[in-house]
Amino acid sequence: xxxxxxxxxxxxxxxxxxxxxxxxxxxxxxxxxxxxxxxxxxxxxxxxxxxxxxxxxxxxxxxxxxxxxxxxxxxxxxxxxxxxxxxxxxxxxxxxxxxxxxxxxxxxxxxxxxxxxxxxxxxxxxxxxxxxxxxxxxxxxxxxxxxxxxxxxxxxxxxxxxxxxxxxxxxxxxxxxxxxxxxxxxxxxxxxxxxxxxxxxxxxxxxxxxxxxxxxxxxxxxxxxxxxxxxxxxxxxxxxxxxxxxxxxxxxxxxxxxxxxxxxxxxxxxxxxxxxxxxxxxxxxxxxxxxxxxxxxxxxxxxxxxxxxxxxxxxxxxxxxxxxxxxxxxxxxxxxxxxxxxxxxxxxxxxxxxxxxxxxxxxxxxxxxxxxxxxxxxxxxxxxxxxxxxxxxxxxxxxxxxxxxxxxxxxxxxxxxxxxxxxxxxxxxxxxxxxxxxxxxxxxxxxxxxxxxxxxxxxxxxxxxxxxxxxxxxxxxxxxxxxxxxxxxxxxxxxxxxxxxxxxxxxxxxxxxxxxxxxxxxxxx
Length: 525
Ligand code: TNX
Description:
Elements (H helix, E strand, L loop, with lengths): L2 H25 L16 E11 L4 E4 L4 H18 L4 E4 L8 E6 L10 E5 L3 E6 L2 H14 L14 E10 L5 E7 L7 H13 L4 E8 L2 E2 L8 H4 L16 H12 L4 E8 L4 H6 L28 H16 L5 E5 L8 H17 L3 E5 L12 E4 L3 H9 L3 E4 L2 H4 L21 H5 L3 H4 L8 E8 L7 H8 L3 H9 L7 H17 L17
Parallel strand pairs: 2-3, 2-4, 4-6, 8-9, 8-16, 9-11, 11-12, 12-13, 13-14, 14-15, 15-16
Antiparallel strand pairs: 1-7, 5-6, 5-7, 9-10
Helix pairs in contact: 2-3, 4-6, 8-9
């Protein structure tokens, strides 16, 4: 062996130790749970400064026979398998579980509420406890954010993974944390909607409101009125080909969402925003002539004939079919911007339609204008524009859902040069979207009056899933946090650092996000 190769022989192992140290440094082995960039911010985090290692033989133990618990475990296993390259197994456990495993159990009396959880991570074990499977699912989403960003991509295996130790005790402030997707102005495929559901699930949101009908398109198959979807769903804004969901496809979306503890609330917007229906059936029009399909973006020009009995037969059929395929408690009946409906007719209509919905065992959600009518028991008013309507609704004893357009509209441009979006309610930068509190937004309307928060994405300008992602990210995590985290724990200057750390997660997930200058993204973006 000459001198050169002797030196190499000595140096090689040294160099590889050096390289490995460098690599592990760049992976930043987490030991401080308090520094984890969790969104929504949990109610309490206490760190113990060590780490749990997910190894080749780590298993996920399910302590109950409840299939929903097994589902949460399977979700975690599916995240860990590609990340570690190990076949992380879900096992049925009972009694003592050996060290080195992840344990999921549903228990009563934890005082964590319907959606809260306690996540206790030690060197030896990850213990996840909740009173419900939903709580376990949210704990799994927290664990997901404690894992390296690569968990969001389908990138290949890279060995053991460490999780910082400590205890997280967490529960949401509001029971309704949602987003609306307008599939009427532009149609989105089942696959796109599922991706949207994935976004909501990652941030512990629990409602997907689907805006299924509007002037430009009817997007759900109604078997007793087939032309609604076939004709009324055939176009979209701009004149392109539209589309609709068969009832089977809708059920597929509902089930996919339910497996992620997300309830689908379908909306049939009426009596205005009904041109697609009026174009599909001549008899629904006052003059008995079908309208033309509409591919523009004006609002307020269409109305059902509120004094025709056929209109209520039509609505009865639609609600009956929709109620039958919707397991959630609520159906949304729209009621916004009915500028071509006389006020008396509007009131008569909204009162009758609420009764139809309750005849099919469902409760009503409607835009805030419903407060002009009688808000029947159980009906929720979705506040988007009018403080007066919000007060009228609460005055009638109703609860409200907060979606103020100036703060919560995902279709508003970030700033004047944003290529997509509208700005009638203003520009909504990422900080503007975050800095507000539903419980103080309207004086006199308090937390007890509010079921939660919803951020709607209207799709006049949004034509495909990449554009959806650009409008939704990075604002959506902020809405999720507003719905989940107590206002006293929320602060933009602290939040923006956590949000910045999520940039690499968005990238790993292939999300085309808007890299706002308000957020201190790491140098790579
Ligand atoms: C108002 S918000 C509407 C929608 C539009 C949206 C655009 C509401 C209840 N009605 O019809 O799509 O503005 O931002």
